[in-house]
Amino acid sequence: MKKKRSTAFKIMIFALITSFSLVLILSSISLAVYTKSLSVQRTISTYGSNGDRFSSNVLAKSDSNLKTVYKTGSAPASAIITICNYEQSKQSLPYDKDISYTITACFVEYDSVGKKYNELGALTGDLGSFTATIKKSSSTVINSENLRASFSGSLGKNAANYDAYVLTLDDNFVDTTKNVYVKVTASPTGSTPFSTLSAVFQVKSRSEGAENSWVGS
Q: CA gyration radius for the chain?
């Protein structure tokens, strides 16, 4: 009888020790998985929250970023271009350092062989009376005699800041067979660790009352 009790007691002790060991092993595995999960979440969250905090409403990190501005009625075609120190739609996460940059507007033509837009020089293309204006606090005109316009800009740190420019294109740009466009480029200067943003603008006519597929605002 005593032998049976002793054997039963040993079996119970063994079962308790085995169960306790399994609990410890499973807890360690769960903790490791949870810790790794937190690490992954932090990585994704940081990347997703910060993004590129040198951004624009229309400019992008592509040399082939083509935007269409619609001309309606007698008013010239125009677009508003913003340069921001936060990822688009995330004004609550501004960059924590000052950003300095240069924004440039120039004439370009499309190279169908190289599949890219090349800047027009004084001896290339037929610019004729093509005129475009880019304006912030003051206006600068680009035409056959002034092929390029540049501004220097800066955005303060730790608060949502942006600069807004108005690009106006005359009626000559409506005729796209002339292969003349305007390219606007925003380039960070100094040690700002962001990529250059750009867009090529073309003009198309649209009857009054028609809805635009893109609005430069």
A: 30
Q: Is the pLDDT of residue 85 over 90?
A: yes
Integer Cα distance of 1 and 87 in angstroms: 79
Q: Which long-range contacts (CB under 8 A, 24 or more apart) does 185-188 make?
A: 185/59, 185/103, 185/104, 185/105, 186/54, 186/56, 186/59, 186/83, 186/101, 186/102, 186/103, 186/153, 187/101, 187/102, 187/103, 187/104, 188/54, 188/99, 188/100, 188/101
pLDDT of the residue at 2: 46
CA atoms within 13 A on the CB side of 150: 6
pLDDT digits (tens, 9 = 90+) for 36-65: 444 433 333 333 344 589 999 999 999 889
